[in-house]
Structure formats: C-alpha cells, structure tokens
Amino acid sequence: MSSVAGKITPDVSARDRAAAIELEGFLPYRLNVLATLVSQSLAKVYGDRFGISIPEWRVLATLGQFREKTAREIGLHSHMHKTTVSRAVAALAERNLIARRPNREDMREAFLTMTPKGQAIYLEIVPLARAFAEQLSEGLSRDELQVLDGLISRLMGKVAHLEGGNGIENT
Amino acid sequence: MSSVAGKITPDVSARDRAAAIELEGFLPYRLNVLATLVSQSLAKVYGDRFGISIPEWRVLATLGQFREKTAREIGLHSHMHKTTVSRAVAALAERNLIARRPNREDMREAFLTMTPKGQAIYLEIVPLARAFAEQLSEGLSRDELQVLDGLISRLMGKVAHLEGGNGIENT
DNA sequence: TATTGTTATACTCTATAACTATA
DNA sequence: TATAGTTATAGAGTATAACAATA
User: Smallest CA–CA separation between B164 and chain A, in Å?
Assistant: First the structure.
C-alpha cells in the first residue's frame, strides 16, 4: 500500500486515509469552534465595559429573569457548577450588584436578588446582548432559526444521555 | 411601577421584565452549553483511554488528514493559538506519537508527522470519535444534518465579522 | 446522614509577552 | 524587520475534595 521498494511514497495508505476524520466537517469540532467564537465575542461586549465574566453574566441573567433565586437554583438553571456559582456570586456581592436574603425556613441557603446598581448594569447589558444575538442571526429566516433551535434542543437531549454524561449538574 | 406605599410587591417592573433575556432561549448561551457538553463527553472518550487532550487530538486529527503539516499550519487549520499547538506538539513528541522533520529550506519550522505509534493510537480513536458523532446525530435526518451544517457555517461567517473579532488566529 | 454553600487546590484551555533562531 | 516556534506567566472556566452550617 504505502510504498514499493525505495519509492518516495511515505504516504498514508488509502485505507488509513479513508479512516481519517475531516476536522472541518466533524460536528463536535464545529460546534466547539462556533461556540467559542460566539462566547468570546459576546463576553467582550460585557466584559470590556462592565468587568463582568461569563458566570457573572449568567447569574445576573438568571436573576433578571426570575428576580430571586438561590445559588443552587442558579446553578441548575444556567448549567454551572456550584463552585463557579459561588465565586460569581461572591464577586457580584462584593461589588454590591446582588444582595443575599437569608431563607428563614432553611438557613443554609439564601435568596439572591440584584441590587438597584446590579439592575442598572443588567439593563445596560441586555440590549447589547440582544443586539449581539440579533447581529449573529441576521440573515437567518425565522424558520431557519426555529429549525436551529430545535436541532440544538435535540442534540442537547442526545448528549445528556451519552456515555460519561458528566452533565454539569451540581453535586 | 414596582410598588405602591408599603405594598409587598418588591417585583421587577413590567418594563424591566420585558427587557429581560431568557437564558434558555438565548442563542449564544445555548450554543455554549451544547458545545461544552459535547466537547467534554468526547474528550472523555479519548482522554480516559489514551491520555489525549483536546488540543492534542486536534493535532493528531490534522496530521491524520494531511499527513504532514507545520505547527503554524496546524494552528490555522484547527483554530488553535500557536502556544496551544506548541504545547500539544511537545507533549505528543515526548510520548513519541509524532515526529519533527526540519524544513531545510526554512529552518525555523519543522514538518510534523505521526509516528507509527501515533498512527496506531489515532486509528484507535477515529472509530470511537466517529461513533460518538454518529450517536450524537442519531435521529437527525440527512437533510437536517445538512441544514445544521449550513447554519453553523453561516453563523461562523457572521461571528468572524462581529466586533472584537478575537478570531483565534495565530499571532 | 444529607444538603447548601464556601474554600483550597488543581487542571485545562487560552492568551500575552519575552525570547531564540532563523529568514 | 518579520516570522516560526518555545517558554514563562497569567487569566478564565471547571472540577474534586474537604469543610462549616444547617436540616
């Protein structure tokens, strides 16, 4: 296959080449590159201007959506490990962007809400994030966006049941 | 909006709620969660059994596809920073999975290829990775997969031209 | 005993900057 | 001067384990 006598064909055999994976066409790779590019571009939008990290943004977004949540609930909702949430919450509380209200019925946990200052920053970020998402999907029809959404949901369901799972669920 | 007199309505106003972003429906977030789950599950497949990291897998995949590439070319092809490539290459060379062949016409760079040992591991990983990708997209029709592929390409093109760019291009 | 949350620690991936050796 | 590649260093993001407080 590879070479005959001293021929200069130190090449991968036909069989091996057939067994190769084209990285550019490999779905896990493509998803990863796309998501990384998107995340980093978006993180720049709120990172540069407000000094907010991705986990911090997710905490704010969750509180913006539900007003009040415990750290545990935030982790479940935004797919973050409890230590990641804990540190994001600590950083936001330190900057007085969120506040803790103890749960008198279970003193282990605390309800978290945005302070007015946090709300203000959140309300500044939202239109920027929204604009980013709109620019991103500009050119895609409503139908295409819906299809993409459905595909993402189905892939998410699939991967949750694949192997090691890992799951990013909280411990 | 928020509360009248001492009423117990410490609630986000209707205006603010309308301005909120639903994380679960926010495309950048969804892409990121999906890609993370997929990447980590796949990385487990080759990480656990062969001690190969994601950057190392990308180097192997690139060499499997093209047989011979410089570190710079690998970085361009697989969207990795030159320092990431450099370390992955060093680790693979250390384990004797890839070999360097100096370019006599430009001694700054070297052509990289897999050793037989590297080939062997690569050829073990490929069917696992392929099986993973197939399981992942199981249930999607050929048409749907093609649509997904097209959408990813278009989003990739879009994000490349958005803002800070970042680009993950090599310096 | 189990759970919420914190902290110490470490690992992966990425990135900047400073360097070398070549060109 | 510019480029290929290495190394030191640092920053995110994530994870495990050990812990305190509470249930």
Answer: 6
CA distances from B72 to A124, B78, B170 (A): 40, 10, 8
Domain count, chain B: 1
User: Looking at the domain assignment, is residue A157 inside a domain?
Assistant: no
Residue A139 lies in a domain: no
Are B68 and B109 in contact by the 8 Å Cβ rule? The answer is no
- Looking at residue B17, its pLDDT comes to 58
Average of per-residue pLDDT values in chain A:
85
The one-letter code for the residue type at B115 is T
Angle, CA of A91, A82 and A165, to the nearest 5° = 140
The predicted-structure confidence for A86-128, as pLDDT tens digits, reads as follows 999 999 999 999 999 999 999 999 999 999 999 999 999 999 9
Give dist(CA B37, CA B26) in Å, integer.
Answer: 17
B72 touches strand D (CB under 7 A): yes
Inside any domain, residue B20: no
Which structure tokens are listed for A137? Answer: 């999907």
- Inter-chain residue contact B41 with A165, CB threshold 8 Å: yes
Helix (H) or strand (E) holding A70, with range, is: none
The pTM for the full model equals 0.87
Whether the beta carbon of A75 falls within 7 A of nucleic chain D: the reply is no
CA distance A96 to A115: 7
The answer to whether A84 CB sits below 7 Å from nucleic acid chain C is no
Strand pairing report for A110-114 and B98-102: unpaired
Q: Where residue A43 sits, what CATH number does that domain have?
A: 1.10.10.10
The pair phi, psi for residue B106, each rounded to 5°, is -155, 95
B83-121 pLDDT tens trace: 999 999 999 999 999 999 999 999 999 999 999 999 999
| pLDDT for B38 | 93
| Residue B113: domain span | 25-159
Give B34's contacts in chain A (Cβ within 8 Å): 31, 35, 152, 155-156, 159
Residue A160 forms part of a structural domain: no
